[in-house]
Amino acid sequence: MKVQKILLPVILLIAVLFPLISQNHYHKQILILVMIWSIAVYGLNIISGFTGQLSLAHAGFFAAGAYTLGILTSTYQMNFWLAFAAALAVTVTLSFVIGLIALRTRHHFFAIYTMCVGFIIYLVIDKWDEVTGGVRGLIGIPVPSPLGPVTFDTIESQYYFILFFLLGTIIAVKRIKDSLFGRTLFAIRGSEDLSKTIGINIMKNQLLAFVLSAFFAGLSGVLYAGFIRFLGPDISAITVTFEMLMYLLVGGIGTMTGPVLGTFLIVTVTQSLQFLEEYRMLIFGPIVVLIMLFYPKGLVGSYHSLKMYFSQRRPADAKRKIKEAG
C-alpha cells in the first residue's frame, strides 16, 4: 500500500512532465495511444475483472463511439462536442439493448453471444458504404473544437486532453470498485447463487456494469477518432477485443493499475519491435505466453499475491523463532 501511494503520484508527475521534457513527437503519439487504449481496457475490467463476465463485443462498442463521432462531424458537420455527447449516448443505448438480451445467458454462452454481436457491428461498418465509407473508411474527422482560449491543434494539447480523460476514468473506476456497487459486482463474480440468496439483483447489477464498460469503450473510441482523424472497419474486428483482453490479463485483471500497466508494456514493446516487421510476433508472442504461464494473475495481481505471502510468512517465522528459542 505504501509503495502504491508513492508510485502512483510519481507516475502521474512523469506523465504530466513528459511532453515538456521530451521533444520526440513519435514517443508522444505512442503514449497518447497507450492512454486511449487504457481507457477502453479499464472499461473491459469492469465487466470482466469486477463482474466475471467475458464480453467480446468491446471493440464493437469502441468502434460505435468512434464512427458515430466521425460520421456526425465529417459527414454532417456537427459541432465536435455535440457529436462527442451523441457518440457516448449512442454507445450507451446500444449496449443497454444488447445487454438486456446478452445477460440472459451465462459464462461461455455470454462470451459467444457478445462475440457474435461484435462481428455484426464489424459487418455493418464494413458493408454500409453509404454511411460508414466501408473499406475506404472515414476521413476528415476534425480535432476537438476550442474551449475558450484552449485549442487542441498541437500534439502537446492533445496529449493533455487525453490524459485528462484517462485520469477521470481511473478515478471513476476506483470509486466504482470501492463503492457498494463495486462490492456487489465482486460478490456476483464469486457466486451468483449466493448473491441471489442475500437479495442481490443479478440482472440489474450486471446490466449496469455492462453499460458502464461499454461507456468507457465508447469514450476511448471517440478520443481515438479525434486523434487519428481516420477510421477503418478494422478497429471493430474481434482481434482488437482480444488485444484489449491481452492488455488486461498481462497487467492484472480486476486490479486498478493493471490496465494501464499492461497496455503500456505491450504497446511499447510491440512498437519497439516494429523493425522486425512480421517477425516481431515470433519474439513478442513467447514473451506474453511466459508471462501468462508464470504470472497467471497478471503482473499487478502477482505482486499483490507475493506481498500477501511474505506478510503472512513473517508472523509464522517469528513464532517459529520464539518456539526454538524457548
From TrEMBL:
It is found in: Cell membrane. InterPro entries: ABC_transp_permease, LivM-like. Keywords: Cell membrane, Membrane, Transmembrane, Transmembrane helix. It is a multi-pass membrane protein. The keyword Transmembrane applies. One of its GO terms (cellular component) is plasma membrane. The chain crosses the membrane at residues 29-47, 54-74, 80-102, 109-125, 157-173, 207-232, 244-267, 279-296. It comes from the Bacteria. GO terms for molecular function: branched-chain amino acid transmembrane transporter activity. Pfam families: BPD_transp_2. This is ABC transporter permease. It comes from Metabacillus indicus (Bacillus indicus).
